[in-house]
Amino acid sequence: MGTVNHEWTAATIASQVGGRCIGNNEVCVSRIADIGSAASSDLTFLSDPKRTHQLESCLAGIIIVTEAMVLDHKQCTWIVVDDPYLAYARAAKLMDTTPKSSSGVDDSAVIDQSVAVSSTCSIGALSVIGADTQIGEKTLIGAGCVIGPQCKIGKDVRIHANVTIYHGVEIGDGSIIHSGAVIGADGFGFANNQGQWEKIPQLGSVILGNYVEIGANTTIDRGAITNTVIGNGVKIDNMCHVAHNVEIGEHSIMAGCSAIAGSTKIGKHCMIAGGVGINGHIRVSDSVQVTGRTFVNKSVKQKGAVVSSGTIMDDNRSWKKNASRFKHLYEMERRLAKLEKIVKEDFDNGNE
Questions:
Q1: Longest dimension (CA), the chain
Q2: Going by DSSP bridges, is the β-strand pair 271-272/110-111 parallel, antiparallel, or unpaired?
């Protein structure tokens, strides 16, 4: 958690999270802790009603809960909210220990003379910024970043160390790009020329909206002709891949190690779990949820659908038995159809 150098009162936290205090609103805490390990100097929260039994033994000085979870007999300070998990997120912003970068340009940075850098920006050591790139105010660019020519970087953007952004990429205000991400590399475009692959120049770019977050070592390819577009508020986890010409609608979220093939369009407010593979040239409607390790091989037209595929974990012996039967499913389906036909014919003929 880092060195403790600040304390916050319950009243301050309640104001930050939009809640109300029950108990001593002047009690102070110095950090956020898990409900099972929290001490009297800690803040914690509980969002799952099934775990309310943990409140009895919790030692935290301040606990964020819903109205229904408050224990009248327990001596602590409660902060009552409608959504404890959201309130925890807001409290964490108040107590964030991430080091703040000072403004200014490191002497070792290489910046083309055509680039204007505001005095409110921070450019880290050994970073390189190409010609005619625009950088908004209060933007922080970490050490070792490479930003190509003709890019547009918005205001209050945070680009962590060792990010590579190719030419012509646009990044909206308030976005965060984590270390190792590559934005705007060529899409996987090749034409077959008598058995040999001829490269297709990728003429589009990547457009990231406002308040987008891209995880570490994630790659987003530039479009082949039109742009790859990531909508406002989209959050993409570590080690994901977004191929050329993909469009992801506003406020969708994508967990680690998932991949979207080219020219697919994902709707708004979708939730894509970890390890998901989504085929190319398909459409996924708004508010769709895709569970972990699912392979989406066709369009999902129903808004708000929950889709899954594959098998869940099983002991190895049972899995082997079931896997051997998968190969016979088509044959079994045909045999069952024949039996159903025979039964129906007997029933129609009065043979019950």
A1: 94
A2: unpaired
Is residue 266 within 8 Å of 247, Cβ to Cβ?
Answer: yes
Rounded (5°) CA angle 262-266-272: 100
**The token pair that represents 320 in the structure block:** 């082997």
Residues 206-223 have a mean pLDDT of 98
Distance between CA atoms of residues 352 and 350, nearest Å: 6
pLDDT digits (tens, 9 = 90+) for 21-45: 999 999 999 999 999 999 999 999 9
Walk across the sheet containing 104-105 and list its strands: 104-105, 122-123, 140-141, 158-159, 176-177, 213-214, 235-236, 253-254, 271-272, 289-290, 306-307
Position 91, amino acid: A
Please identify which of the residues 160, 178, 241, 244 carries the catalytic annotation: 244
Write the single-letter amino acid at 85.
Y
CB atoms near residue 335 (< 10 Å): 11
For residue 295, give every residue at least 6 positions away whose Cβ sits within 8 Å of its Cβ, in sequence order, or none: 276, 277, 279, 309, 310
> Is residue 241 annotated as a catalytic residue, yes or no?
no
Predicted confidence (pLDDT) at residue 4 exceeds the cutoff of 70: no
